Amino acid sequence: MSEVMAWTEAERLSFADLLEDLEEHEWSVDSLCAGWTVREVAAHLTMSTRLTLGLAIRGAIRAGGSFDRMENRFAKERAVRFTSAELIAQIRETAASPRRAPGAKPLDPLLDALVHGQDIARPLGRQRAVPVEPALAALEHARTSAFYGARKRFRGLRLVATDADWAAGGGVEEVRGPVSDLLLLATGRPAGLTGTSGPGADRLAAQLKV
Q: Staple partner for 44: which of 32, 51, 69, 75, CB 3.0–4.6 Å?
């Protein structure tokens, strides 16, 4: 747990560094998260340590029981409520906090920061390195968790990292690519296909309707 928290803190602080380097107009660019701008992704990340059980229950009721609608509402409301500087400060303030959203697993905050960093950087044409060991831990978590849909998405596939000594899955169709791209695919992002290859990548493209 201490290692996971150290990884998470480092990634959150790096995420804040990325945001501080943005021009104001870049905050309005569409991210890889459908329907969210860069600002809304940043606002969403501030909720990682601030979503209490009571707030989640009230939010779920307002959203008609939909987790996605609840998260969307929170992100958009905070994006309007706080300035860019305030959102960055909030991420820094709780970078080392072990608090998690209700139901979240220990690796979920790390995965959140890693993936959302790519959600922002890639549409802006910025290179954002992914630390391999933390990313592999997040990838293995996403691959085996029911929450992200990767079990079904990767069924019959073998994933092979091209920038680390890692492979997983018992399928015969391979998907080869950098850990960062495999992590995006594990969380349902078509952008992860850009750096991948193999017959399994073609099947994923069809699934993700690319």
A: 75
